[in-house]
Write a structure and sequence with these properties.
Elements (H helix, E strand, L loop, with lengths): L14 H6 L6 E3 L4 E4 L15 H11 L5 E3 L17 E3 L3 E4 L3 E2 L7 E7 L3 E2 L2 E3 L5 E6 L2 E4 L5 E2 L3 H5 L11 E5 L9 E5 L4 E3 L34 E4 L7 E8 L6 H8 L2 H5 L5 H10 L1 H6 L5 H11 L3 E2 L2 E2 L2 H9 L8 E2 L6 E4 L2 H4 L7 E20 L27 E16 L1 H8 L2 H20 L10 H18 L10 E6 L4 E9 L8 H6 L2 H12 L65
Parallel strand pairs: 3-23
Antiparallel strand pairs: 1-2, 2-4, 5-7, 5-10, 6-7, 7-13, 8-9, 9-10, 11-12, 11-16, 13-14, 14-15, 17-22, 18-19, 20-21, 21-22, 22-23, 23-25, 24-25
Helix pairs in contact: 13-15
Length: about 600
């Protein structure tokens, strides 16, 4: 398996797409080949480091790394004299099918294409025994496992249902119908043996054998042990690659000069320090550290290092969302939050602007004029996605495939934009949670979650609680309503839901990696948030799929929507790029009255 060092798609990928969709281990179709993106060890990384100490520290501890840095995916330089950068890829898969169709042995609707290995090709064509040239395309099907390993199917083994002496006769892929269903695709050998491809999808029979631990994105010999069965995977399917990412919103520091001074020497010298005495020793013995930190006391520097490692809360590090919520909820009309490097600026909106009867449960509306979000990829999974938990932390116990043999850095991007934050009164939601109707509804939702867990025993997800269900539902309702006027499509607006012991809130924000900011449309819309919330509540009362949507019972096995209450594509589901939980944990009946009238609604007016 050779690296295609100069291969480049005809189009271009955005840097943010590399983080979320086309990272190491993902597959891309080039004009004549299919390739798999190589691991970080083969990348010629960018020279521009991204600083976000809070995120670095959390991921460093999660992956048990000594040092860690963030760099953006390498950009294609416009200057031909600039230093060479790029992402290496490997050719994958190794099997191809001929593009010209022949009539199969059964005639009629059967269309046959020959299966050929890369070793049999002459450039980009296959030459048969009669010297005819056949254009080829990569085969659509490969085998993979839940641990992220991936490899070519052993087509001869599959067609002959095991070992065979038939090693030289041609293999064919027959389509015996027009639907494209796997049951109509047959792998056939000229010896007469054949097998339907749908056999590879039969659960529990291990038709494709056990995984051998191949990791072609890390090189041809980067195998490891694996105890998972192989599963059939369509290369272009949506479940072929799920990037495992973690993000934080950069928060203002009390002393920017200290932050900048520590930035210059943190990764190389300060990240591993465990006491202020070690800091004093470093300042004396290392000239670079001494020069960078000149003018600051040991206590000031040590406090900055501690804050980067996670400010303590009851003896434990604050979660990602805990730190963000504390900053956002501290903004007032008189004392906004601002730092001079344009990373973050927020100010509370005067209450008399938005105070309306239906806004009684809202405590504060904050307009975030500027924000900076840093998103880093940690690994990836196949077949099932892995989301951060409701506190923004990566789920522990979830096995993801690595991005490199020895990771010392991770790909990351900076998104700069704007947003609006709505803080809800903690007492209002706490009192709502005690209502008998809400408790009964919660039992049905939890029963649905248990049914989902039974079907996904390897998942590390936890039940998020009814407060999260409520806030997440309101977030989707607002996102849809706001997108109609703010100037951004709904798929460009993202959410962060804060359901914490310290309080409750929703942040709707937008950002772009290739801009210094936005045009202010979301902030301007935030000044009319009372009007948008009223519209969202009214729209959510009736879904176009009611009464079916409103009457959906989460544990119902025949539907399989165990993580939804009254929620569907007609009312609450949005683009998955906008949702922090892949459109799970939603229920209209917790927010507004529906035709089912379960009596658990939070907004009763």
């Amino acid at each position: 398996m050779k690296p295609q060092r100069n291969a480049r798609p005809h189009g271009q990928l955005r840097q943010s797409q590399v983080i979320t969709t086309f990272g190491p281990g993902s597959m891309i179709d080039l004009p004549t080949r299919s390739v798999i993106i190589g691991g970080l060890d083969t990348w010629l990384k960018s020279a521009d480091e991204i600083h976000e100490p809070r995120l670095i520290e959390k991921i460093r501890r999660l992956l048990n790394l000594g040092q860690l840095r963030f760099y953006p995916p390498p950009a294609n330089p416009d200057d031909p004299t600039a230093a060479k950068t790029g992402i290496h890829v490997y050719e994958f898969p190794s099997w191809f099918v001929t593009q010209d169709v022949e009539i199969g042995p059964r005639g009629g609707l059967t269309r046959s294409r020959m299966l050929v290995h890369r070793a049999s090709l002459d450039g980009t064509r296959y030459i048969d025994d009669r010297k005819r040239k056949h254009p080829v395309v990569p085969v659509r099907f490969v085998r993979a496992c839940r641990n992220g390993h991936i490899a070519d199917l052993d087509w001869r083994f599959f067609a002959h249902r095991g070992a065979t002496e038939c090693r030289r006769k041609p293999l064919w892929m027959d389509e015996r119908g027009t639907s494209g269903d796997l049951a109509e695709i047959v792998v056939r050998c000229d010896c007469g043996k054949e097998r339907r491809l749908s056999d590879a999808t039969i659960t529990g029979q291990k038709v494709l054998g056990m995984c051998e631990g191949q990791r072609p994105w890390l090189g041809p010999v980067a195998w490891e042990g694996c105890d998972q069965p192989n599963r059939l995977l369509v290369r272009s399917a949506s479940n072929a690659y799920f990037a495992r990412v973690m993000s934080v919103i950069s928060l203002p520091d009390k002393n920017e000069s200290i932050e900048k001074a520590v930035n210059d020497v943190y990764s190389d010298n300060l990240a591993e320090l465990e006491s202020v005495d070690e800091l004093r020793f470093m300042r004396k013995k290392i000239a670079q550290v001494k020069a960078a930190l000149d003018g600051f006391t040991d206590d000031e520097i040590w406090a900055e290092i501690q804050s980067r490692k996670g400010a303590t809360l009851g003896g434990q590090a604050k979660s990602v969302k805990q730190a963000e919520f504390e900053v956002l909820s501290s903004a007032t009309e008189q004392a906004g939050i601002d730092i001079t490097d344009t990373s973050f600026s927020a100010r509370a909106l005067a209450k008399e602007v938005w105070e309306k009867p239906w806004m009684g449960a809202v405590e504060r509306v904050v307009l975030v004029h500027r924000l900076r979000e840093v998103v880093a990829q940690v690994g990836f999974t196949r077949f099932e996605a892995s989301s951060p938990d409701v506190e923004g932390e990566l789920q522990m116990g979830v096995k993801s495939a690595p991005l490199a043999m020895d990771a010392t850095w991770l790909p990351a991007v900076e998104n700069r934009g704007e947003g609006v934050f709505i803080q809800f009164k903690k007492a209002a939601i706490d009192d709502w949670l005690k209502r008998p109707e809400v408790i009964d509804r919660g039992k049905r939702l939890y029963t649905g979650f248990e049914a989902w867990k039974a079907a996904h025993p390897q998942s590390g997800r936890l039940f998020p609680g009814l407060s999260y269900y409520l806030l997440h539902t309101v977030s989707h309702m607002l996102l849809t309503a706001v997108s109609l006027e703010c100037g951004y499509p709904a798929s460009s607006i993202r959410e962060r839901v804060y359901s914490l012991e310290a309080g409750y809130g929703i942040l709707l924000y937008t950002g772009s990696p290739d801009a210094e900011g936005t045009l202010g449309g979301l902030v301007e819309t935030g000044r009319q948030i009372h009007r948008h919330l009223q519209a969202a509540l009214e729209l959510a009362r009736l879904c176009s799929n009611d009464p079916v949507c409103a009457q959906h019972d989460p544990p119902a096995p025949h539907e399989g929507r165990f993580l939804h209450g009254a929620a569907c594509h007609g009312c609450l589901l949005v683009a998955e790029t906008s949702c922090e939980q892949q459109n799970d944990f939603l229920d209209r009946s917790l927010a507004v009255p529906t035709v089912e009238a379960v009596g658990a609604e939070f907004f009763t007016g």
